[in-house]
Write a structure and sequence with these properties.
heterotrimer; A mainly alpha (303); B alpha/beta (250); C mainly alpha (339); A: 303 residues; globular; C: mainly alpha; 0% strand; binds adenosine-5'-triphosphate; binds magnesium ion
Chain lengths: 303, 250, 339
C-alpha cells in the first residue's frame, strides 16, 4: 500500500521536498480560506452552508472572465471575491434565511437545490468543458531557487495572500466593531435586535464575507486548477474535514488542520496515491472519536 | 433511602453545588428551595446522572450512583420531571404515556414486537386517568395547555414505576388556581404510589403546607434543613431568603 | 410464530401489493410499466430506508446513497468473480445478495457508530463526507470497480430455484419480491416498539434517555438497518441494469433521495414512495423539454421547500389532524362552559 521507495527517493532530493512542501502549502492554504468562510458562517448562524463550494466555483469562473477581459490577475481575484460575496447576499436573503432555525432537512434541500442550479448556470454561461486560466502575465517570472528546487513566484504569492486574508477575516471578527456586533448576534439575536441594530443586515454581510472567502480562494486557485462545473463539491468536503479536525468555529484551528491536510495530500500523492482520501477521512474519524470538538474547537458537536 | 454526601460541582468560577449533604427518608415528601441560581436544578442533574459531580457521593439504598448514566439510574427506580416540561411534541398524550410504559417494560429495542399492545395500552390508560388527562388523551402533546404538559412530564416519569421521584418546579409558570390543582395532584400521587418525593418550589405557601422536610440552598451551599416551623424561624434563612416575605406576612 | 400473528395485517397488505405488482407484470405486455416499476423498486427502497433515518429517528443523513451503491457494487463484483460463481453454482445469486447486504451492513454499522453521537448538522455533513469517500474509492480503484466506467461487461446471473434472472418477467417478479419483503420489514419496524423508540429519539432524545431508552445503540442499529435496506435497492438496480455505476454513490443521488422524502412526506409511511414516483415523473417531463434538467429540478425543489415546507402527504395529514383537533378542543370548551 505505501510506496516507501518513492518516499525515500523524494526525501533524499531537495528539489522533490521543496516541490511537495510548496504544493502541500498551496493546497492547504486555499483550503484554509474556504474553510474559514465555512467556519465563520457556522460560528454565528449555526448553519453549515452546504452550498459553500458553489461560491468557490463562482469565484473561480468570475475571475476567469475578469482576467480574460482585463488581463490583470489582481483585479480578477478581487472580482472573484466580490462576485461570490454578492451571490452570497442573494443566497442568504432569498433562500437560506427563510429556513433559519428550521429543520436541517429543509436547510439541506435548499442548499442542494442551489448547488444544482449554480452548476447548471455555469454550464450555460461558461460551457461544460474544462477551462484553464493559465499562469497570469504578472507571474511569468523566473522561479526562485531553494535547496535545489524551483518555486514559481505565483505559488509564493498564493500562499501568502491566502494566509493574510484568512487571518484578516479572523481579526475582523475578533477586533472590529462589526465583529463584536456579529458575535453578540451569535449569542443573543433578539437582544441585539432590541438595541436597534439591524440584525438581518449584519447576517447578510457576514454571509457575504464567508462566501467571499470561498470566492477569493476559487479566484486564487484559478491559475493552478482547471475549472469545471461541479468543482465546488470536492473542496466543500475537504474544507468540512478541515473544520471538523480544526474545530468548528475556530479559524486558527482551520489553519492548522488545513496545513496538516495539505501536507498529507502532498506527501500522499507520492507515498500512498490510492489512499490519500482514505488518510484524510481516517484523520477526521480519529478526531471525531477522540476529540469530537476538534483540535482547537470549543463545543457544540454532540447533540 | 436517598443520601447525598459532600457533593461539589463547579462550572468554571461558579460553585453551583458547594459541599452539600442531605438525606431523604423512604416515603417522605421533601422540598428543596432557594433563590434563583442557588443550584437546585444542578443538584437534581447530578442525582439523575445528567451531570457528573466533581466530588462527593450519591447513595440510593447504600449504592453509589455517581458515574452511572441517566438511564442506568432510571432503571434503579429514580424518576424525574423537568423544570421546562420535557415531552414528545408530536405524540398524542396517550402515545407518549404508552411509549414510556413500553420503555419501562424493556421493549425499546424489540424489532418484532408491536408497540401497541393490550398490556401497554391498559397501563397507559390507567395513568391517563390517574393524571386526570383523559379528556386530552388523543391531542398532540404540543397542543395541550402548559399545565397539562407539566402533568404529562410527571406522568412520563411515573410510568417507570419509580420509588424516588424528583420534580423540578412542578408549578413553574402556572396561575394560582392551576398551581394548587397541581400541588394536590402531586400530593395525591405521592400518597397513592408510596413514593419518596422531592420537589423544587419557589412558592413558600406551597412548601410550608405540604413538605415534611425542607432543604434550603443558597449559592450552592446548604444553609438549613428541617420541617416547616424550623425553616420559618431559622435566622439564616430569614436573612438570606425569606426576610422580606416574612416581614410582609407579619 | 407470534410475529406472524402480531403483524398479520401488515403481512396481508404487503402480500396483496405483491400480487397486484405480479399481476401487472403478467398481463401488461408493454415493457414500460415493468421497467418503471423495477426502477421504482430500487429508488423507492433508497428513499424508504432513508426515511427510517430522517422521518423516524430524525437523523438527517446526506450520504445514504453510499449504501445503495455499495449493495450494487458488492453484488455485481461477487457475481463477476468466476471463482465465486464457479464454486457456488446455483447458490451464487442468493448468496451474493446475502453477502452484499450484510457486507454493507457492517460498513454502515461502522460509519453509524462514528456518526450517531453527533448533533444534526455534523451528522448530515459527516455522512456526506463518508459517501464522498466511498465515491472516491470507486473512482480511483479502477482495477476493481472499473472507475468512472462502472462495472462493465454485464453481471452473470446463474439460474437458481428455476428462476432465470436474465428473463425480463422472472427478474421483474424477483425484484418485486425483494422490494415487498423490505417494505414489509420497514412496516413491521414502523409498528414495533423499536420504531416507537426511534420516534421518541426524534422528538426528544434527552427525554428518551431519561426514560431508559438506549438512544445511541438504537441509532446505530437504525443506521445499519437503513444501510442494509438501501443496499437491497442497489442490488435491484444492479440486476436491472446488469451493471453498477459510480453515479449511484455520488452525493447528488443522496440529495435526490432526500428530496423524494420531502416531496412525498416523511411522516406518512408510503410518503417516500410517492415522492420517488413524483420525482421520476418530474425528471421525465423536464427531460422532454430541456437538457438543463438540474436547473429546473433545483428550482422545483426551491419552490416546494420554500412554498410547502413539508411533503405532500404530510400536508394532507396535518390538515386532517388540525381539523380534528380543533373540533375536539372546541367541543371540550363547549362542555366546560355548559358546566
Ligand atoms: N451547564 C452549566 N454550565 C455552566 N453554568 C451552569 C450550568 N448549569 C447551571 N449553571 C450555573 O449554576 C448555577 C446554579 O444553576 P441552577 O440552574 O442549578 O439554579 P436553580 O437553583 O435551579 O435556579 P432556578 O430557580 O432559576 O431554576 C447558576 O449560577 C447557573 O448559571
Ligand atoms: Mg432550576
Amino acid at each position: 500500500m505505501i510506496e516507501f521507495e518513492a518516499l525515500a527517493n523524494c526525501a533524499s532530493s531537495g528539489a522533490c521536498i521543496v516541490n511537495q512542501v510548496t504544493s502541500g502549502l498551496i493546497i492547504g492554504m486555499l483550503l484554509f480560506l474556504v474553510a474559514s468562510g465555512l467556519t465563520l458562517i457556522f460560528g454565528v448562524l449555526n448553519i453549515i452552508n452546504f452550498a459553500h463550494g458553489s461560491f468557490y466555483m463562482m469565484g473561480a469562473y468570475v475571475a476567469f472572465t475578469a482576467y480574460a477581459l482585463t488581463g490583470n490577475y489582481f483585479i480578477a481575484a478581487i472580482f472573484g471575491a466580490i462576485g461570490a460575496g454578492l451571490l452570497g447576499v442573494f443566497f442568504e436573503r432569498f433562500i437560506i434565511s427563510r429556513v433559519y432555525g428550521q429543520n436541517v432537512l429543509l436547510q439541506l434541500l435548499v442548499c442542494y437545490a442551489f448547488i444544482l442550479i449554480m452548476d447548471d448556470v455555469v454550464k450555460l454561461v461558461w460551457g461544460a468543458e474544462y477551462l484553464a486560466m493559465g499562469i497570469p502575465d504578472e507571474f511569468r517570472l523566473a522561479p526562485i531557487r531553494l535547496f535545489g528546487g524551483f518555486i514559481p513566484p505565483l505559488y509564493i504569492f498564493l500562499i501568502i495572500t491566502a494566509v493574510v486574508i484568512g487571518f484578516g477575516a479572523m481579526l475582523l471578527i475578533a477586533k472590529t466593531r462589526f465583529g463584536s456586533i456579529v458575535r453578540a448576534i451569535a449569542e443573543n439575536p433578539s437582544m441585539v435586535g432590541a438595541l436597534g441594530i439591524r440584525v438581518p443586515l449584519y447576517l447578510a454581510l457576514l454571509f457575504a464575507i464567508g462566501c467571499a472567502l470561498a470566492g477569493v480562494a476559487g479566484a486564487l486557485a484559478a491559475p493552478v486548477r482547471s475549472l469545471t462545473p461541479g468543482m465546488g463539491l470536492g473542496i466543500l468536503v475537504e474544507s468540512f474535514i478541515v473544520t471538523v479536525i480544526g474545530g468548528m468555529g475556530s479559524i486558527p484551528g482551520a489553519f492548522f488542520a488545513a496545513l496538516i491536510l495539505g501536507l498529507t495530500r502532498a506527501v500522499g500523492s507520492i507515498g500512498f496515491p490510492l489512499f490519500v482520501d482514505g488518510a484524510m477521512f481516517m484523520m477526521m474519524a480519529l478526531v471525531l472519536i477522540f476529540k469530537p470538538t476538534g483540535l482547537l474547537g470549543g463545543g457544540g458537536v454532540k447533540r | 433511602m436517598l443520601e447525598i454526601n459532600g457533593l461539589v460541582k463547579k462550572f468554571g468560577g461558579v460553585t453551583a453545588t458547594n459541599d452539600v449533604s442531605m438525606s431523604f427518608a423512604e416515603g417522605s415528601l421533601s422540598a428543596v428551595i432557594g433563590p434563583n441560581g442557588a443550584g437546585k436544578t444542578t443538584l437534581f442533574n447530578q442525582i439523575t446522572g445528567h451531570l457528573l459531580p466533581d466530588q462527593g457521593e450519591i447513595l440510593l439504598n447504600g449504592e453509589n450512583l455517581v458515574g452511572l448514566k441517566p438511564r442506568e439510574i432510571v432503571a434503579k427506580g429514580l424518576g424525574r420531571a423537568f423544570q421546562v416540561a420535557s415531552i414528545f411534541p408530536t405524540f398524542s398524550v396517550l402515545d407518549a404515556l404508552m411509549s414510556s410504559v413500553s420503555a419501562h417494560e424493556m421493549k425499546s429495542e424489540k424489532l418484532f414486537q408491536p408497540f401497541d399492545n393490550k398490556v401497554v395500552r391498559e397501563r397507559a390508560e390507567q395513568l391517563l386517568a390517574v393524571l386526570g388527562l383523559e379528556s386530552v388523551g388523543h391531542v398532540a402533546s404540543s397542543k395541550i395547555s402548559h399545565g397539562d404538559q407539566k402533568v404529562l412530564d410527571i406522568g412520563l416519569a411515573l410510568a417507570l414505576k419509580p420509588r424516588v421521584l424528583l420534580l423540578d418546579e412542578p408549578t413553574a409558570g402556572m396561575g394560582p388556581d392551576e398551581r394548587w390543582q397541581m400541588v394536590r395532584t402531586v400530593q395525591r400521587l405521592w400518597e397513592d404510589n408510596n413514593l419518596t418525593l422531592i420537589f423544587i418550589e419557589h412558592d413558600m405557601d406551597i412548601v410550608f403546607e405540604i413538605a415534611q422536610h425542607i432543604h434550603v440552598l443558597r449559592y450552592g451551599a446548604l444553609i438549613a434543613s428541617g420541617n416547616a416551623d424550623e425553616i420559618r424561624t431559622n435566622e439564616e434563612v430569614i436573612e438570606a431568603y425569606l426576610g422580606r416575605e416574612l416581614e410582609e406576612d407579619a | 410464530m407470534s410475529m406472524f400473528r402480531n403483524f398479520s395485517k401488515e403481512i396481508l397488505w404487503v402480500l396483496g401489493a405483491f400480487l397486484a405488482i405480479v399481476f401487472v407484470g403478467l398481463f401488461v405486455d408493454h415493457p414500460w410499466p415493468k421497467d418503471f416499476l423495477t426502477s421504482l423498486f430500487a429508488f423507492g427502497l433508497l428513499a424508504m430506508s432513508l426515511n427510517l433515518l430522517i422521518g423516524f429517528a430524525g437523523m438527517v443523513s446526506f450520504g445514504h446513497a453510499a449504501y445503495f451503491a455499495m449493495g450494487g457494487y458488492c453484488f455485481g463484483l461477487l457475481l463477476q468473480s468466476t471463482s465465486f460463481t464457479g464454486s457456488l453454482g446455483p447458490y451464487s445469486v442468493p448468496l451474493a445478495i446475502i453477502l452484499a447486504v450484510f457486507g454493507t451492513g457492517v460498513y454502515a454499522a461502522a460509519v453509524g457508530a462514528i456518526c450517531a453521537r453527533l448533533n444534526e448538522i455534523y451528522f448530515a455533513f459527516l455522512t456526506l463526507a463518508f459517501q464522498m469517500f466511498l465515491y472516491s474509492v470507486i473512482l480511483s480503484w479502477v482495477d476493481l470497480t472499473g472507475g468512472d466506467q462502472g462495472l462493465m461487461g454485464g453481471i452473470p446471473r446463474p439460474l437458481f430455484l428455476g428462476i432465470d434472472l436474465s428473463q425480463a418477467l422472472d427478474r421483474y417478479v424477483f425484484c418485486a419480491g425483494l422490494f415487498c419483503l423490505c417494505i414489509l420489514f420497514l412496516r413491521i419496524i414502523d409498528k414495533s416498539a423499536f420504531g416507537q423508540s426511534l420516534r421518541m429519539i426524534r422528538d426528544n432524545q434527552e427525554r428518551a434517555e431519561f426514560l431508559g431508552v438506549r438512544t445511541y445503540r438504537i441509532k446505530v442499529i437504525c443506521f445499519t438497518i437503513a444501510g442494509m435496506i438501501a443496499s437491497v435497492g442497489g442490488i435491484i438496480l444492479a440486476l436491472f441494469t446488469s451493471g453498477a455505476y459510480p453515479e449511484w454513490a455520488f452525493w447528488a443521488q443522496s440529495g435526490e433521495a432526500i428530496f423524494m422524502i420531502m416531496l412525498g412526506g416523511s411522516t406518512v409511511f408510503v410518503g417516500p414512495i410517492l415522492g420517488a414516483v413524483l420525482l421520476r415523473l418530474i425528471n421525465d417531463v423536464v427531460q422532454m423539454y430541456t437538457s438543463h434538467n438540474e436547473l429546473v429540478t433545483g428550482i422545483v425543489i426551491l419552490l416546494v421547500v420554500l412554498g410547502l415546507r413539508r411533503g405532500i402527504l404530510d400536508f394532507v395529514i396535518d390538515k386532517i389532524k388540525d381539523r380534528r383537533e380543533a373540533k375536539f378542543l372546541a367541543d371540550l370548551e363547549a362542555k366546560k362552559e355548559d358546566q
